[in-house]
Amino acid sequence: MTAVHITIEGAIALVAIDNPPVNAAGFDVRAGLVAAVQTAADNDAVKVIGLYAAGRTFVAGADIREFGQPPKLPLLPEVCDVLEASAKPIVCVLHGTTLGGGLELALSCQARVGIKGLKLGLPEVNLGLLPGAGGTQRLPRLVDGATALGMITSGKPITAQAALEAGLLDDLQDGAPEDVARQAARQVLDGTLTPRVTAAQPNRLTQEQLDSFRAKAKGEVMVRALKAAEASSLPMAEGLAIERALFVEALQSDAHKGMKHAFFAERAVAHIPEAQAEARDLATAGVIGGGTMGSGIATAMLLAGMPVTLIEMQADRVEFARETIARNLDGAVKRGKMSAEQREATLATLTCTTDMGALADVDLVIEAVFESMDVKRDVFGQLDQICKAGAILASNTSYLDVNEIAACTKRPQDVIGLHFFSPAHVMRLLEVVVAKDTAPEVVATSFKLAKKLRKIAVRSEVCDGFIGNRILAYYRKSTAYMQLDGAPFEQIDSALEAFGFAMGPFAVSDLAGQDIGWATRKRLAPTRPEEERYVEIADRVCEQGWFGRKSGKGFYVYDGKTRSVNPAIAEFADAERAAKGITARSFNDQEIVDCYMAAMVAEAARVVEEKIALRPIDVDAVFLFGYGFPRHWGGPLQYADITGLDVILSRIENYAKEDAHYWQVPALLRELVAAGKSFNDLNKNH
Ligand code: 3H9
């Protein structure tokens, strides 16, 4: 089967792109398009070409899998030039999500007709790139400069209606792409649709518009995209050459490698061993616990259209849970996610009660009660009695042993961990924790649920903290060690914020509540090995009742939206150093980043080695979508690949000279370095 077919119907040549799933403009499509235009050119009867795509969308971009491979001619910019130079006008019919190179193909045609529901965009910046097939040159010749710059720099798609109003589309119609293409071609023939060559249109980008976008531009990706757009003031061929050079430069950047990896990570995690199992039906859900987490989970379910029965153990908290959920839904109305009427209708599908018996008929229950095995044991014992056969019993525990929880029931095959991240109706990550007896169809159903909730599910085996919190618990210690050794905590935060984290680790723990880490430290104290370094500064902070943002003070002091350094912290650090005979030394920002990242990579490698995560890319997805990891680094293990595994290994070996207990080289890292392989090579084995 070829990726492009041509059908001649008298004066009309209909050219169809057919390259499932998203009609990406890979080699077959590019070569096929050039051949089809030539066939039409050679046929004297043909006067107009109708170009469209089969399947769910017009071309959704260049084929991202080809980036980094040896280029195969014709390249997309050349195909666009061929379309633009066609003596027979080409009317392009767009549907679905016409993105990146797909939109660039359309821009090169002589007319564009959209099909209702269409979205159009240039998402290249999300991959660390810029439009590289004429998008930065042709778009400002069709639409107002501000609209063009908005699309080029934000990567966000616009609606068909907005595109029509901006002049990007000549018309908006309804129907199957093939029929609309035939109809639009007829309109060109009868003169009701006037073709025009984009390159011949005047550039509408002004210097003021460029300056205003430049003032807001952050980072090399945006700067490069704006530079290309600026070249649209030059003659077309010169502008295209500048765009091409910048695109090639972007293709080689680390930011592109990281962001491309992040794109595939989001999708790769769905490939699980249980994917073929038949998922159970999920129509109704129960949530136990009406705190922030339980209310957030209930909100997520309601937003996905699932009626929810929420059980709050304490009668006086039932109303509070309902109010929290109502407030969450207000937020969804404010963000334009639902109308006020939809909010009312949705809220009507929520039942809040203290009666566990109300869960008898639900298809799924998610428990989000206090993190104590005794409490969970009691809850799951009750669920086992109450719930119908086949109901999925899930725990939102963030570190407890799901095998032990499952053992409290006579149906361990139905028990699973579903670890949401707070706020649960906003955060995209869902860790799906598979216990030893969990049935494959329960895993498959959990992944289906994640899709319904528009979340990214990552499969994890059972261990303390699962993938994310286990790695977090390890690398967080490195920040305490650096602090005690002399790095001010605010320098650690600012160095990591400059690396790309939205918030440094001390600011994050202030936000989460210092008492959470304190409880974990106390829980783990009895099993802490004697040779492990222990830093007490955070305990001193908690002993003052300074639990972070919620108490107005933690490592920082909070005044409205501003934060300042809590001066007591340096005193705590000095006192602990004096007691332990440590002389403070200074750190530079790069040392801080190197040490923090080496710790993260070390534990992440162990998580892969122990098969807690299916692949390195699963760990990357957890950090990208649950822990605010900078997208341009692609995740901790992609960062390690970009930095070089030999470099990371030698850093760990060096640190181990100071603290051989904490800094142990993961066997997997050593093996990969010896074999000259990367973490990404392990992703390819699946
Ligand atoms: C570009 O165009 C550069 C040019 O300016 C210049 C060139 C010179 N390539 O997301 P889904 C795969 S840069 C290859 O689950 P949905 C995807 O991996 C590109 N593969 O579906 C998945 O595979 P699998 C600019 C692609 O319905 C499968 O298709 N374009 C591509 O939820 C289904 O994808 C973009 O950045 C691709 N371009 O969403 C658009 N796209 O099943 C990127 C998808 O094996 N794509 N795949 O895991 C998207 O945003 C979404 O895929 C889309 C559909 C909205 C289209």
Automatic annotation (TrEMBL):
It comes from the Bacteria. It is found in: Peroxisome. Its main location: other. GO terms for biological process: fatty acid beta-oxidation. Residues 465-558, 595-677 form the 3-hydroxyacyl-CoA dehydrogenase C-terminal domain. GO terms for molecular function: (3S)-3-hydroxyacyl-CoA dehydrogenase (NAD+) activity; enoyl-CoA hydratase activity; isomerase activity; NAD+ binding. Pathway: Lipid metabolism; fatty acid beta-oxidation. Residues 285-460 form the 3-hydroxyacyl-CoA dehydrogenase NAD binding domain. Keywords: Fatty acid metabolism, Isomerase, Lipid degradation, Lipid metabolism, Lyase, Multifunctional enzyme, NAD, Oxidoreductase, Peroxisome. It catalyses: a (3S)-3-hydroxyacyl-CoA + NAD(+) = a 3-oxoacyl-CoA + NADH + H(+). This is Fatty acid oxidation complex subunit alpha. It comes from Thalassovita mediterranea. The lineage of its organism: Bacteria, Pseudomonadati, Pseudomonadota, Alphaproteobacteria, Rhodobacterales.
